């Protein structure tokens, strides 16, 4: 009984704890469910945001989603209860309660902010910023050119001296780059994307860097006349350079030729032929045969080789096109949908075109009835028939009215240029002469029968003036035009086919399919208003998305009090997506733009008759007085040729007018009283009027004005008083020539955007004191201005400032430093810079520090820092103590540093920025270590780029970073891409194999032009046997002359898809020691590895039939080997090929010692199988004797192309000839071409099959010149 008495209380307590424990378990599981639901909501919203163009997910969001997955897994509770996590109910209950609270206060609460779309994604960079970088790089290059030319002239005064080839080549490169105008690059399409423009900047940077050594005091720019021995060495080196350049051009040409109906240009063909001839020359023969027995003659040969090399450089530029249209092609198919209800009309047009009686046809009808669609279908059908040798489609459009008398010459010329473009006459001369261009068009059209289709003709015109031969039935030439006017059809002497509107039922069905029933009406009011505003732009105009969203913000359509500018931008993209998805706007080839169909544009203008829109129609004067109706709301006259507003013109009486768009005209003067009767005006856009030098005083009376845009008004020197414009929210004076700040600027207390430029010499302190709502401040004075920036007491007032751009402030010593009020007090007002997210500082040449460390507490929302071209900058953050403090920038996501020659460190103390995603450092020569003292791991860093850091000695170095096995496992957890280029002191990227444990998300490694690089990953005796990079997809190593190995340990990267190694002459074996098979490798390129002795070699990486997993090289599709002069074979054994059954392309070229493609042995099988091989290309392999063994047959049933040239010792092609139904041999079924050189070699081949030559002859193409 005593035992029972003792046990009962214990049992009661036990069951009590068990019940409570179950409650805790249920609470924890319920919290898991809530977290799972929140995670699902966040993921759905993230996917919706990522469908918007130009958006990427924030790294912190991705990390939160992964953490939420971990916390909601069923195994969590099991691990806690059943696997030793809790030993008793009491202990487990307490821990469960703590874990539930941790979930609630931690990850669940953190996820609250991600329920807002604004917190999920960020924008990608824009192109405008890099235009400024390009121009500055050109100026820098020009100054260096002048210094080197002066030095060269002095040294050439010495007798017996000539300029060195290296100097001459450099000066020639510079001479080509300096005249380039960035505007031309953009307009011509060569740099229409950010990546293309950055490549051009990269090219300028490389040329600038190449010239640095010529500026050194001890560097000689001249040389003696070459000796024969010296000349021979130079000649061989230049041949090697020419080989590399030819390879690059071949690869680019091959890619271009994949486009339909393209052929290589004659210029490219000629250069390739010259390059091949020069590469084949043996300099010893030149000398021994007497052709270059004297040094001077050899010098001439070297100069000739140098010129060919330089000519080829142009072809490597991204914006240089290597192909032209094949003139034998009659035309290109047009994208068109099926024509509904127009079959009879289409058949009638085809009947007239195929016959000889009707030569001119006009398809007439009201807008939107389907005239263009009918003719596109006719056009595409005739492409497949032989009636016409050439079919030309030109959209005329009312933008180019040919008979407007005051614009006749201009419009005819524009129309002629469209036809010339369709006839591939773009490169012909005299394109600004209308008569000569007409003759060129007439000559080209007269060469064959043609069909000319002119879409959307608004006025009649003379065919003879344009250069169109008279279409008559018996000459095979015909004309079809579409027009809304029967008068035009009659005036052009055409047979008319009229297209009537569809019956109401069919029209409604068609509208429902194309646009959606009542789409416009179903859109919310905000989207409707945004849609209507798109009609203010010219017809067929490609509107930049960012420009359109900015205009919506200016109109107040997406403005909400208290919203950040960033949030409004995101909302703008939401609206844009809705309009595109509902077919009210359409995407165009330029991803950053949208356009509006002309029918929808007319519909929008009909919906709102209070719009007056005459945009982009070549107007030279304002609309007549009667057109300025009193009820007008918006007027758009943008993109015209209006030169002046006559002083005699009275002020239009438009009291309701809110928007007046006069941008991109040629206006030089505006009458003083012009705006007197437009007192309701809210938006006035006069930007891009380059001749405008003065504004009328009547602007000062526009008290309701919210937006005044004057950017790019280069001649504007003064602005009238703005003190009455208290509602102004945006004022842009960027790239004007104003000499004083506008009077009353300090009264504009509602201003959110302020852009300043010009020849200003005033301090901004007083004007900015009252601008507390300012969100974006841009200051870019004229380059010669001594702009004052002395007292920073104003900063406490700018609590809403989100973005700060500072350019060319030549007397600025520090952006955030000891000046004014902060020098006298220990702290700034509360809220100072509490909204600042972005700061960009360029060409401020006196600053030595961006800011002092004490400022960081006010910059806690900072997301982006860009600093460039600041010649005296030594530190980004200046420490105020010897040891440096520990500080944080918790929201910093992007750090970009460019051309800071004196920069030594980012911060000498301990800087924590856990949110950073991108670090890019370019041309900062003094930096020795990337990661600052007191480095803290960067768990969200995704992208690291280090370019031209001449003194950089380490990147990931355990001693430099303070890394050890105790480092948190999230260090570098998110890093996906590493790019290292031009770091000549760097000997390794990773100082130890164990470091790779922190880089488990790494996908791309690119290392280029590091002259001292010896190892990618260093190793030591105590290294682990195996390390992994499980997500690595691409490895590219380029011009690393001392690189011996990637890693001497065992490196497992099962996800890698691409390995490309170029110009790494010290590498003897591609696959590292302890090699592990690569089941996902698709692409392998080995180029100019002079010491490479093996590729796929069983002894080299331990392969043997019993040991190799069946997935080894399972995905490999393409192998390219070039210029590997020590390599004698690619595959060391035929049995290896069983692991390469996905192989589609094998290309081997310029390997001087190559003897066998596939080596053989006594026990080899008779058949070698590569079932998916489509292309085999063997080029310039002088010692190649066999593709496989003499007794083997190569079975490649998918082979399409076989290209062999300059393989003189190859005597046998071991193709398999399959049997067809009648037991006769046939060619491989997929074979399309056999391209060989020379023809004599083909004739001398020995064949296993007696009829092989006859079977294959129909597929043969004999080159006149070898590749």
From TrEMBL:
Ranges of residues in domain Disease resistance protein winged helix: 536-604
Keywords, ordered alphabetically: Coiled coil, Leucine-rich repeat, Plant defense, Repeat
Every NB-ARC domain range: 345-516
First and last residue of the signal peptide: none
Domain Disease resistance protein At4g27190-like leucine-rich repeats: 828-932, 966-1086, 1108-1213
Gene Ontology MF terms in the entry: ADP binding
One Gene Ontology term from the biological process aspect of the record: defense response
Keyword Coiled coil in annotation: yes
Coiled coil region boundaries: 25-52
UniProt family annotation: Belongs to the disease resistance NB-LRR family.
Protein name: NB-ARC domain-containing protein
Source organism (scientific name): Rubroshorea leprosula
């Amino acid at each position: 009984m005593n035992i029972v008495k003792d046990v009962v209380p214990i049992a009661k307590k036990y069951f009590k704890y068990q019940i409570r424990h179950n409650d805790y378990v249920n609470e924890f599981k319920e919290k898991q469910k809530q977290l799972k639901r929140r995670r699902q909501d966040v993921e759905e919203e993230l996917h919706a945001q990522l469908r918007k163009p130009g958006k990427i997910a924030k790294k912190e969001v991705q990390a939160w989603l992964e953490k939420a997955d971990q916390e909601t897994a069923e195994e969590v509770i099991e691990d806690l209860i059943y696997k030793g996590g809790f030993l008793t109910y009491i202990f487990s209950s307490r821990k469960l309660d703590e874990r539930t609270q941790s979930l609630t206060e931690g990850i669940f609460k953190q996820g609250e902010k991600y329920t807002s779309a604004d917190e999920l994604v960020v924008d990608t960079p824009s192109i405008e910023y890099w235009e400024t970088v390009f121009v500055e790089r050109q100026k820098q290059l020009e100054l260096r050119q002048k210094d080197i030319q002066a030095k060269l002239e002095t040294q050439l005064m010495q007798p017996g001296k000539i300029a060195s080839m290296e100097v001459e080549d450099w000066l020639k490169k510079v001479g080509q780059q300096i005249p380039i105008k960035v505007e031309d690059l953009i307009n011509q399409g060569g740099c229409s994307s950010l990546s293309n423009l950055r490549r051009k900047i990269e090219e300028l940077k490389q040329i600038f860097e190449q010239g640095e050594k010529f500026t050194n005091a001890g560097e000689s720019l001249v040389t003696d006349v070459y000796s024969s021995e010296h000349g021979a060495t130079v000649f061989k080196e230049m041949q090697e350079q020419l080989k590399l350049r030819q390879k690059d051009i071949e690869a680019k040409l091959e890619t271009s030729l994949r486009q339909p109906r393209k052929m290589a240009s004659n210029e490219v063909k000629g250069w390739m032929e010259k390059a091949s001839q020069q590469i084949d020359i043996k300099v010893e023969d030149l000398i021994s045969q007497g052709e270059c027995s004297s040094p001077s003659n050899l010098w001439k040969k070297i100069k000739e080789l140098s010129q060919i090399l330089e000519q080829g450089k142009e072809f490597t530029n991204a914006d240089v096109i290597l192909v032209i249209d094949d003139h034998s092609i009659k035309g290109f198919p047009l994208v068109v949908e099926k024509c509904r209800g127009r079959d009879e009309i289409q058949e009638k047009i085809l009947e007239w075109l195929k016959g000889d009686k009707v030569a001119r046809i006009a398809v007439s009808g009201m807008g939107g009835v389907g005239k263009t669609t009918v003719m596109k279908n006719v056009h595409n059908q005739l492409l497949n028939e032989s009636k016409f040798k050439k079919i030309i489609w030109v959209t005329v459009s009312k933008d180019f009215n040919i008979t407007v008398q005051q614009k006749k010459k201009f419009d005819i010329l524009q129309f002629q240029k469209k036809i010339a473009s369709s006839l591939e006459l773009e490169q012909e001369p005299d394109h600004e002469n209308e008569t000569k261009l007409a003759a060129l068009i007439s000559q080209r059209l007269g060469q064959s029968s043609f069909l000319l289709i002119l879409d959307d003709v608004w006025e009649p015109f003379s065919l003879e003036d344009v250069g169109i031969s008279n279409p008559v039935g018996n000459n095979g030439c015909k004309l079809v035009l579409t027009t809304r006017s029967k008068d035009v059809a009659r005036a052009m002497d055409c047979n008319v086919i009229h297209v009537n509107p569809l019956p109401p039922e069919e029209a409604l069905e068609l509208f429902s399919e194309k646009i959606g029933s009542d789409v416009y009406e179903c859109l919310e009011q905000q989207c409707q208003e945004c849609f209507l505003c798109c009609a203010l732009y010219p017809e067929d105009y490609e509107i930049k998305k960012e420009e359109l969203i900015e205009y919506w913000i200016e109109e107040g359509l997406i403005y909400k009090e208290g919203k950040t500018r960033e949030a409004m931008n995101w909302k703008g993209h939401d609206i844009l997506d809705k309009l595109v998805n509902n077919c009210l706007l359409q995407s165009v080839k330029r991803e950053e733009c949208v356009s509006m169909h002309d029918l929808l544009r007319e519909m929008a203008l009909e919906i709102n008759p209070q719009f007056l829109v005459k945009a982009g129609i070549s107007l030279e004067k304002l609309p007549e007085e009667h057109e300025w109706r009193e009820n007008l709301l918006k007027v758009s006259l943008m993109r015209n040729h209006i030169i002046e507003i006559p002083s005699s013109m009275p002020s239009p009486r438009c009291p309701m007018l809110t928007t007046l768009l006069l941008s991109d005209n040629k206006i030089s003067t505006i009458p003083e009283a012009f705006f007197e009767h437009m007192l309701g005006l809210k938006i006035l856009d006069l930007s891009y009027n380059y001749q405008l030098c003065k504004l009328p005083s009547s602007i000062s009376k526009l008290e309701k004005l919210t937006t005044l845009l004057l950017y790019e008004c280069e001649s504007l020197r003064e602005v009238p008083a703005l003190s009455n414009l208290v509602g102004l929210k945006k004022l842009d004076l960027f790239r004007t020539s104003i000499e004083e700040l506008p009077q009353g600027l300090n009264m504009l207390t509602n201003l959110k955007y302020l852009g300043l430029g010009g020849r200003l010499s005033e301090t901004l302190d007083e004007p900015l004191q009252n601008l507390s709502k300012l969100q974006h401040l841009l200051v870019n004075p004229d380059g010669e201005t001594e702009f004052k920036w002395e007292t920073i007491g104003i900063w406490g007032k700018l609590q809403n400032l989100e973005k700060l751009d500072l350019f060319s402030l030549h007397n600025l010593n520090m952006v955030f430093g000891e000046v004014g009020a902060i020098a006298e007090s220990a702290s700034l007002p509360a809220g100072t810079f509490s909204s600042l997210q972005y700061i960009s500082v360029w060409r401020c040449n006196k600053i030595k520090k961006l800011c002092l460390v004490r400022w960081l507490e006010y910059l806690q929302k900072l997301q982006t820092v860009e600093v460039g071209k600041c010649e005296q900058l030594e530190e980004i953050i200046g420490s105020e103590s010897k040891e440096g403090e520990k500080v944080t920038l918790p929201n910093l996501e992007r750090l970009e540093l460019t051309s800071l020659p004196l920069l030594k460190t980012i911060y000498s103390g301990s800087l924590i920025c856990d949110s950073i995603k991108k670090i890019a450092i370019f041309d900062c020569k003094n930096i020795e270590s990337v990661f600052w003292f007191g480095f803290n791991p960067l768990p969200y860093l995704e992208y690291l780029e280090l370019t031209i850091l001449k003194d950089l000695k380490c990147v990931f170095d355990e001693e430099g970073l303070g890394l050890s096995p105790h480092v948190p496992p999230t260090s570098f957890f998110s890093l996906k891409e590493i790019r290292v280029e031009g770091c000549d002191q760097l000997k390794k990227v990773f100082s130890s194999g164990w470091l790779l444990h922190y880089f488990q998300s790494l996908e791309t490694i690119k290392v280029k032009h590091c002259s001292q690089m010896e190892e990618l990953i260093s190793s030591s005796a105590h290294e682990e046997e195996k390390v992994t990079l499980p997500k690595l997809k691409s490895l590219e190593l380029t011009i690393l002359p001392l690189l011996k190995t990637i890693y001497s340990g065992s490196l497992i990267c099962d996800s890698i898809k691409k390995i490309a190694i170029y110009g790494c002459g010290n590498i003897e074996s591609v696959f590292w020691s302890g090699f592990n098979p690569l089941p996902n490798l698709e692409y392998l390129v080995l180029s100019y590895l002079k010491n490479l002795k093996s590729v796929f070699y069983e002894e080299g990486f331990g392969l043997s039939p019993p040991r190799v997993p069946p997935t080894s090289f399972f995905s490999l599709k393409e192998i390219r080997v070039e210029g590997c002069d020590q390599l004698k074979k690619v595959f060391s054994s035929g049995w290896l090929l069983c692991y390469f059954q996905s192989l589609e392309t094998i290309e081997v070229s310029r390997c001087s010692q190559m003897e066998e493609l596939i080596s053989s042995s006594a026990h080899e099988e008779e058949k070698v199988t590569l079932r998916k091989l489509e292309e085999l290309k063997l080029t310039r392999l002088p010692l190649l004797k066999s593709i496989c063994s003499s007794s083997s047959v190569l079975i490649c049933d998918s082979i399409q192309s076989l290209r062999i040239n300059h393989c003189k010792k190859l005597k046998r092609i071991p193709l398999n000839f399959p049997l067809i139904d009648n037991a006769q041999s046939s060619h491989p079924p997929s074979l399309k071409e056999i391209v060989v050189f020379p023809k004599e070699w083909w004739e001398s081949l020995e064949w296993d099959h007696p009829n092989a030559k006859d079977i294959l002859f129909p597929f043969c193409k004999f080159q006149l010149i070898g590749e």
